[in-house]
Amino acid sequence: MRMLEPVEQFSTHEVGPRRDLDPERVARLAERVRAMLIELGLDLDDPNLKTTHERVARMYLEMFRGMDQGTKPRVTTFPNDENYQAMVMEKDIPFYSMCSHHLVPFYGHAHIAYVPGDKILGLSKFARILEFYAKRPQLQERLTEQVVSFLDDELRVRGAMVVIEARHLCVEMRGVEKSGVMTVTSALRGIFHERPIREEFLDLLKGR
Ligand code: ZN
Predict the structure, then answer these.
(1) Which of 82, 108, 185, 191 is least enclosed by beta carbons within 10 angstroms?
(2) pLDDT tens-digit readout, 135-170
């Protein structure tokens, strides 16, 4: 059987399953997960639980891989030779993250827009920036701010705006009546403080 390789350039998950995990780190973490499972009263002789601690350890290291990728996302930029001055927007970028408070997933979509200064960003890089900050224990509010700050500080854009819509399983799993609730956060910089461009952004969002 031939395994399909992920098509990286179309994936928001820029890094596929990690093959570079430090085996000693995996082993240390797995041992601690095992202790937790025992404390929970689980029978680790059950064939379905026998190697769960190792899988969980690897899975956590994968889900938090943004923490191992340096202090900032690595993105290439291009000079804005055409002097493009309008808004560039990418919407409905999917992401998965983990709530810092409960280590339970929150997930949804981000909508990211900016007005370039003297640099422009490759279109696939929006997803990469989002991914970098999402793959770690995170808060939706902080994720939103970090993405907009990166665009503002690193690209010195004329303005940027980020809206994130997400479902939080730590909220939903603990009360049936809260199922499906969407949390929306937004952050903006620069020219997006002006109403016309902010309205243009929100109009483009409505049209999806
Ligand atoms: Zn939570």
Answers:
(1) 82
(2) 999 999 999 999 999 999 998 899 999 999 999 999
**Could you tell me the distance, in angstroms and rounded to a whole number, from the CA of residue 105 to the centre of ligand 1?**
8
Q: Residue 180 has what pLDDT?
A: 83
The three-state DSSP-derived secondary structure of the chain is CCCCCCCHHHCCCCCCCCCCCCHHHHHHHHHHHHHHHHHCCCCCCCCCCCCHHHHHHHHHHHHCHHHHCCCCCCCCEEECCCCCCCCEEEEEEEEEEEECCCCCEEEEEEEEEEECCCEEECCCHHHHHHHHHHCCEECHHHHHHHHHHHHHHHHCCCEEEEEEEEEEHHHHCCCHHHCCCCEEEEEEEEHHHCHHHHHHHHHHHHCC
Q: What is the pLDDT of residues 49-61, one digit of tens each?
A: 999 999 999 999 9
Q: How far is the CA of 115 from the centre of ligand 1 (A)?
A: 33
Task: Collect residues with CB below 5 Å from ion ligand 1.
Answer: 99, 101-102, 170
